[in-house]
Design brief:
- This protein is an alpha/beta fold and 273 residues long.
- It has one domain (3-270): Metal-dependent hydrolases (TIM Barrel), CATH 3.20.20.140.
- It has helices spanning 39-49, 60-63, 68-76, 93-101, 111-114, 123-131, 144-155, 176-187, 208-221, 243-253, 256-270; strands at 8-13, 51-57, 81-85, 104-109, 135-138, 158-161, 190-194, 226-228.
- An eight-stranded parallel beta sheet has the order 1-2-3-4-5-6-7-8.
- Helix 7 runs parallel beside helix 8.
- It is globular.
- The two termini are 24 Å apart.
């Protein structure tokens, strides 16, 4: 299947434009060089690969909780972009509603970077997200989801899991974090992004050690609750990655029908494009 001919939605990518939006002093890491990517440039990447829409995620790297670059990209995107913002735990309902009107569909939490203790006080925010039908997006690693899962279930919040949950592959399919992902799949609350393989593969591209765990997630969640994503422009990648080769990889791992669901049907329905 030629995936260039398939209309696509990219479920996880970033825009970083420090020339127009200076990086935050609060951010511990400031991307540079090939890690940078403006909204204008990303539109060219999308055009080259037949990607029609993208879910932009506010990066903790560079911007911390400064969402100006993200909101500007959505405003200038002519309907092509929606976003996931980074917000403090005390963000109120009115502010969330305002961001919703600007194209924000959820809030990102990154325990893989900040640790679980950083998010000790988010239960009220999770409840407010649930009330507004917004997504709580978590980037976890290892077994962190096992600790978060009871809080997610209590809030009954729609949940996006980044990058396959970033498992420790050596721990196998019965590790607590992997079991928590399966429980989230059974709950009906969760959607998983089949992306970010470089963040947990130990073998590098073409990520052969990640293939079976990814296919198990696809079976557990079902294609209708899995979405494909590039993670462009590959912040803190340990080696060179490319949009085109990641698309080719998807074409080898997934059937044509699965690709249509992961890359278009599921994200179009979930994020209301």
């Amino acid at each position: 299947m030629n995936l260039l001919d398939l209309p696509k939605i990219d479920g996880h990518c970033h825009v970083l434009d420090p020339a127009r939006f200076a990086f935050s002093a609060e951010a511990a890491y400031h991307p540079a060089g090939q890690e940078l990517g403006t909204a204008a440039y990303f539109k060219e990447v999308m055009a080259a690969y037949g990607t029609r829409h993208a879910l932009l995620v506010g990066p903790n790297s560079g911007y911390a909780s400064d969402n100006r670059c993200l909101l500007d990209a959505i405003a200038q995107g002519e309907g092509r972009f929606k976003g996931v913002a980074v917000l403090p735990a005390d963000t109120g309902r009115d502010r969330l509603r305002d961001l919703q009107r600007q194209g924000i569909v959820g809030v990102a939490f990154n325990p893989a970077l900040h640790g679980l203790a950083h998010y000790a006080d988010i239960d009220g925010l999770l409840q407010r997200l649930a009330a507004l039908n917004l997504w709580a997006q978590f980037q976890v690693s290892g077994d962190q989801l096992a600790e978060l899962l009871p809080r997610i279930e209590r809030a009954r919040v729609r949940t996006l899991i980044d990058h396959c949950g970033r498992p420790v592959l050596a721990d196998g399919p019965d590790a607590p974090g992997v079991r928590a992902l399966r429980t989230l799949a059974d709950s009906g609350l969760g959607v998983v992004k089949l992306s970010g393989f470089a963040k947990f593969s130990q073998t590098g591209y073409p990520f052969e050690d990640a293939r079976e765990p990814v296919l198990r997630l696809l079976q557990a969640f079902g294609p209708e609750r899995c979405i494909w994503a590039s993670d462009w422009p590959f912040l803190r990648a340990p080696y060179r990655l490319d949009y085109g080769t990641l698309l080719q990889l998807a074409g080898r791992w997934f059937t044509p029908d699965q690709c249509r669901t992961l890359m278009w049907d599921a994200p179009a329905r979930l994020f209301e494009w």
